[in-house]
Protein: Ribulose-phosphate 3-epimerase
Organism: Hydrogenophaga taeniospiralis CCUG 15921
Amino acid sequence: MSIRIAPSILSADFARLGAEVRAIEAAGADLVHFDVMDNHYVPNLTIGPLVCEAIRPHVKIGIDVHLMVEPVDALIPLFAKAGANLICFHPEASRHVDRTLQLIRDHGCKAGLAFNPATPLALMDHVMDRLDLVLLMSVNPGFGGQKFIASTLPKLAEARRRIDAHMAAGGQPIWLEVDGGVKVDNIGEIVAAGADTLVAGSAVFGAPDNDGGYHTVMKQLRK
Ligand code: DX5
Ligand code: ZN
């Protein structure tokens, strides 16, 4: 299984975002994780399509847009146009989950569903064939730098079983991403429980010695 690392730019230096995304790409990042918060679905306010468009020419790797917004649909064409490759949203924030997933695919992006720590995995049941990504939140969404919630591990194993069963039955591949509190010292057990895509914000951008880039911490995470 190939493992993808997606540094979250929520913890980057926003005054030098172009250089920051170039640095993580140079250090081997597979995706840029782009956290969109609206002070409505979550109690924080971050960045939108204009910033996505601004960083797009700086890197070749995919931009993984995590929408923590409500409502969702109106932003999808804007992010697709701004260069997003993957767009993921929270099912509680969309009245019509199936329609929103299709809307993302109609705009040429991969579609993902994000599960909060208390959101049951059963919400994926009837839309499996529309999913490219399942994102499991291992913290409550809204802020970087929170502590990993341990109950995510059994939930992750359960999500892995569902996805494997889907693929074994001839279904399309679905990535399984974990977001929140991923660090050098717990990434091993998170991968062992079934994740193939890891978001890491403060672990990457807050690395104590970032060696003028992020090579050391990216290597430690990869190992
Ligand atoms: C939280 C965001 C995460 C966050 C992760 O709501 O979705 O992507 O940036 O940050 P760390 O890795 O610091 O927990
Ligand atoms: Zn995120």
